[in-house]
Every structure is written in C-alpha cells, then in structure tokens.
Amino acid sequence: MTKSSPERPLSPHLQVYRWPVTMLTSITHRFTGIGLGLGFLLLACWLVALSLGEGPYEAVQAFHRSFIGRFLLLGFSWAVIFHLFNGIRHLFWDAGMGFEKETADRTGWVVLALSVVVTLALWWIAYPMGGL
Amino acid sequence: MKTATKKQRGLGAAKQGVHHFWAQRMTAVALVPLVLWFIYSIMQVVGAPYLVALDYMKEPHRVVLMVLLIWASMSHLRIGLSEVVEDYVPDHGMNAAAKMLVTFFCALIGVTCLYAILRIAFVA
Questions:
Q1: Does B25 sit within 8 Å of A84, measured CB to CB?
Q2: Residues contacting residue A84 through CB under 8 Å, at least 6 positions apart
Q3: Cβ-defined contact of A40 to B25 (cutoff 8 Å)
C-alpha cells in the first residue's frame, strides 16, 4: 500500500466540512433539548420553593438575581425559545413542508435570528419588572 | 412472539414500530401552545413577591395547565434523551443503564414538580 499524498481531497467530515445552517440548527436543537432537561431543575426548584414558603422562595429568587442565576436563566430562556421555534420548523418538515434546500436554509437562519431577538425582547420587558 | 406464524402471516406489522416517533410528535404539538402560555405566564410573575406569585400559581386553570406542561415535557424529554443515548452509547450494557438513568431522571423531576404544583394549589 502506498501512502496517500496530502494533496488528495479529503472526504467530507465534521472537521473539514463547511457547516450549512441546517447542520448548525440540527445540533443546536439537540443541545438545547439536553439543556432544557437540566434547565427543568430550575423550574422544579422554583416550584418547590414556592410550595414550601416565603423563606425558600426568597432564597431561590436571590439565586436568580445572582450572576450565575441570571446567566443560567438567560441560557434557559433562549433554549426554550430556540427549541420551540425550531421544533415548529421540524413539525412542518414532518408534514412534508419546507424541506427544499433553499427553504430549509432560509428558515434555519430565521429561527436562529428570531430566537435571539425574542429572547432579548423578553428580557428587555422582564428586566425592569423584577430586578432580574 | 405471541402468535403462531400460520395465524399472523398476511396480517401485516403490528403498527407499533413508530410508537416513539409518533409520541414525540404528539407531545411536541401539545407543547407548542403550552410553552407559549408558560412564557406568557412566567413573564407576569418575574420577581414577584411571595404572596403575589403564590396567588397567581394557585389559580385553578394555571394548575391544570402546569400539570399538562410538566407531563408533556417529561414524556418528550424521555424520548428525546433516549434518542441521544441510542445515537452515542454503542455498548449494550451502558446503553441500557443510560436509558434507565434518563427515565429515572424524568420521572423524578416530573413527580417533584407535580407534587409542588399540587402543594401550591391545595396546601401552601
């Protein structure tokens, strides 16, 4: 067997392939899904604290106002919104709609942009409400 | 196999092969309005004092919708995480263990949230 020369073209591979936006949204859907599973712990803590009384509730609220708390909530809210929008995109695909390459690329960019814009808009509304 | 070959031949598949696929789509469709409602609702109580948040979450229709949200979310999460395990954990033993862990995690979080919701509704 002769050694292959380095000039020969490489087969498409994750590390050499220029990512189309559909690949990016696909793996982001999976990551946000996993993240939402972990993020559900935040909701569980909030609900349990609210059910237990004012002390636990205030403690959880204080954590939400901390730097780490805000960071986690920001990530969680973006993950919810991205997974929701991209999930709707997936449901259209399942119904056989929007699966053409150009359409799938366009809706991919729309979902990414919209998820960021909507997340920031919601935080912009919520921020003055609760000192979050 | 439950049925003798001569009896089952020609009857086709049991139509159970797409169970997870279908369940994932059903919970997804249910979660679209539920999550939109949840985002709207949570925006109403951001940073709210204890009693305000408690009264808000006690409201009967919110209790019902929260139970549905948690139920649908945990069913959806269980299938989704199991799919991830199926893709990335090739070893049979590890695969089974990881799927069990996924199921236990979803059940634990789900039941904890449901307990809290019911406590908010009837006790707190």
A1: no
A2: B31, B32, B35, B36
A3: no
